[in-house]
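Worked Example 4.2. Consider the chain below.
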Amino acid sequence: MLKIVKMRSTAICRALSKVVQRHVSTAAVCSGIRMSRPVLIARQISSTLPLSNELIDALKNEITAEKQLEKENLRGEQAPRISGFEITTNGANVHLAKLHGNEKINVYFNVNHSVDMEGEEDEDEGVPLALPSLTIEIIKAQQRLCFYLDLCENEDATEANERFDFRVAEFYIAPASKGTEDEDVPDSVYSSSGKYIDPTLHDLLFNNYLAERGFDQKFCREVVDFATHYEHSQYVKLLTDIKSFVSK
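Applying the procedure from the previous section yields the following structure tokens:
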């Protein structure tokens, strides 16, 4: 009987000891004393899980809203075409290609940061527009004539296809690429600003020569339509990828 009493007394002492330890831990938290690592980990887990769930719910709502906008304002999931060009995409990069007589024509642009949320909106749809800069390469024999263009709004437009135009920011001739089609131009190649050119040469080279190859206001409008739709699809994909990452 005495042995049983001693065992119970020992158990009670252990229990009291645990209660005291818990009280000390709680007091330490209230007084700002650093907690042990296991307690910190438990606190982090308890605070992280609700945040992840809240973030996932917010991402789901945003994805649903953006897809609804795509359906109502961007004419569905299929991006519009650009007349006469074969379109290839790789992430944010877009490549347009076509032939013109004995010339091969490439157009490159990237939709990253192409939308200015405080800038232009589609008058009919109320959607922020993507206006990416373009690089045009006209390849013949072993050379390529290149133009770097900035898209801009045409304030004098009277029709939808005239709303957008381009400015030539830079132009140059470089050797034809030997590897990938968008191979970087050597630093030794001289390039000139499109701002400083004789007015007659400006009209012949920047307007007539490029228009003869399909680079006109209609082309600009189609690029803006495509880029706006494609940039939006990339944004939705980014949100979806983030949701998958957070959910792991």
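The domain at 73-238 is CATH 3.10.280.10 (Mitochondrial Matrix Protein; Chain A). The chain has a mean pLDDT of 82. Compare this with Example 4.1 before moving on.
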